[in-house]
Amino acid sequence: MLKIVYPISCGIDVHKKFVVATIATTNSNSVTTYKTKQFSTFTSDLIQLRDWLSLNNCNEVCMESTGKYWIPIFNILESTCRVTLANPKFIKNIPGKKTDKRDSIWIADLHKHGLVRGSFIPPKQIRELRDLMRYRVKLIGFRSSEKNRLQNSLTVSNLMISSVVSDTFGKSASAIIKYAIEHPDNINVDFTKFLHKSMLHKAEQINASMQGTISNEQCSKMNVCLNHYDYINTCMSQLDETISLIANEFTDSIKIVETAPGITYNSAIGIISEIGVDMSVFPDAKHLCSWAGLTPQNNESAGKKKSVRISRAGVYLKPLLIQCANAAIKDKSYPYFRYRYESIKKRRGHKRAIIAIARMLLTCIYNMLSKNEIFDEELYREYLNSARKPLNTNISKMILFLESKGFTISHISDNELTP
Questions:
Q1: pTM
Q2: Where is the Transposase IS110-like N-terminal domain (predicted)?
Q3: Domains, the chain, ranges and CATH?
Q4: For the chain, which terminus, N or C, has the lower number of CB atoms within 10 Å?
């Protein structure tokens, strides 16, 4: 018989318009009684749910993370109950006679035995910061889409300025494009007056690249793209102000994370918004890396290993860490990460190597936040110096390799063995 961990527990089946809650009460004889009640997701009814739980002395609540619908319930119960949020695939009921009431009873039964693995729920301020940072990522995507649309219109209109300048949205290029849109009928215009002094040597090429024709349709489209692009930049400025106000409360942690190679101020805020500042919620760095989707999976059956690719977890954190990893391997101040990347890349390729570097960075961040210490470069410098030294043990492998190729090794002196 399974041990009863929570004698009084509640399982909640969550939906958009209503929730079904079941309180499972187990007495000293291991007999369980159930009370089930349905509530709407309006705030007044959720307060009634909270009062109903308090009336039955229930402080342990388990519910599935259905979309965003669990958040209003969690907001009401957070102060009075210990809420366990479960991934639906871990508490899925046996198919058959499946109803909302039976689902809530099933969740309550699993939770009373302590069989539900709870998901990580950061504090409210971190949740607010996470929501803003994720929205900022979306805005950056929208802005990039508008830049691509404008670039497509320029190409269709035979305006090939992107082949001459490195940034189509730089100060000089933007002024040239805006003038071309405002005066689509002007031909053979000298755009030298719009160029920065560092670009004057490209004046002839730029004038040649702008010998195109903008139709009325493309002109209207480009105007919309530019207006939307400017509006998105304004929205991002407003969002950044709000993010800065929240991030000021985690200044010490941000400064610690920022000392790691390849991590900027905005990257540090993004990482903290995903993992928080309290590392005690993760048993160790390996659990954090697995939660972020940076470790291979175990998938073995009948002695055969199947796909062990990384999971799809960490849809916001993982891309951010990969960007930081790409910056870290290019940072000449920290050659260790470049050395590790090159050594893994030879055997496993670029993609696996960059994932390995991202995991190393997250492991560093875990230990830095746990110990409240900045990044210690000397630890990696000592390891790098020892790793680069040739080892005597490799000589025997070299001899075997040469003999396999048909060479005969006659004699090796002790002086030749010394690296």
A1: 0.84
A2: 10-155
A3: 8-112 (3.30.420.10), 125-248 (1.10.287.4070), 250-298+308-386 (no CATH), 395-419 (no CATH)
A4: N
User: Do the Cβ atoms of 21 and 10 come closer than 8 Å?
Assistant: yes
pLDDT of residue 411: 61
The number of beta carbons lying within 10 Å of the beta carbon of residue 99 is: 11
Question: Which residue in this structure is represented by tokens 């009640």?
Answer: 37
pLDDT in tens, 46-102: 999 999 999 999 999 999 888 899 999 999 999 999 999 998 888 887 777 788 899
Cβ neighbors of 371 (< 8 A, separation 6 or more) are: none
Quote the tokens at residue 167: 């940034």
Indicate if the pLDDT at residue 35 is higher than 70. yes
Among residues 134, 181, 128, the alpha carbon closest in space to that of 154 is found at 181
CB of 158 closer than 8 Å to CB of 237: no
Distance between CA atoms of residues 400 and 126, nearest Å? 57
Residues 52-59: contacts with CB under 8 Å, at least 24 apart: 52/21, 53/10, 53/21, 53/23, 53/77, 53/80, 53/81, 54/80, 56/8, 56/23, 56/25, 57/8, 58/8, 58/9, 58/10, 58/23, 59/8
CB atoms within 10 A of CB 174: 15
Decide which of 408 and 294 is more confident. Answer: 294
Token pair listed for 390: 């040739």
* DSSP H or E segment with residue 23: strand 18-26
Record the tokens describing residue 65, joined without a space. Answer: 């993370």
Residue 52 CA, chain-centre distance (Å), reads 38
Q: What is the pLDDT of residues 264-307, one digit of tens each?
A: 999 999 999 999 999 999 999 999 999 999 998 888 888 888 88
- 289-291-295 Cα angle (round to 5): 45
**231 close to 142: Cβ distance less than 8 angstroms:** no
Tokens of 28: 């000293």
Cα 22–127–10 angle (5° rounding)? 10
What Cα–Cα distance (Å) separates residue 239 from each residue in 129, 132, 137, 139? 11, 7, 11, 10
